[in-house]
Amino acid sequence: MIDRSLPGLDSSGCWAVPVRMNMATQCLAHDANKVAIIDLTGAARRDVSFGELTVMVDGLARALRQRVQANDRVGVLLSQSPWCAAAHLAIWKIGAISVPLFKLFKHDALASRVQDAGITLVLTDTEGRDLLGDLAQAEMADSFGIAGDPVATADTGPEDPAVLIYTSGTTGTPKGAVHGHRVLTGHLPGVSLSHDILGQDGDCLWTPADWAWIGGLFDVLMPGLALGVPVVAARLPKFSIEACVQIIRDGDVRNVFFPPTALRMLKAGACSIAGLRSVASGGEPLGAEMLAWGQTAFGLSINEFYGQTECNMVASSSGTQFPPRPGCIGKPVPGHDVAVLDADGAPAQGEGDVAIRKGSASMMLGYWQRPEETALKYRGDWMLTGDRGMFDGEYLRFVGREDDVITSSGYRIGPAEIEDCLLTHPDVATCGVVGKPDPLRTEIVKAYVVLKEGATVDAETLQTWVKTRLASYSYPREVAFLDALPMTVTGKVIRRELKARAMSETSQ
Question: What CA–CA distance (Å, rounded) separates 271 from 268?
Answer without folding.
Answer: 8
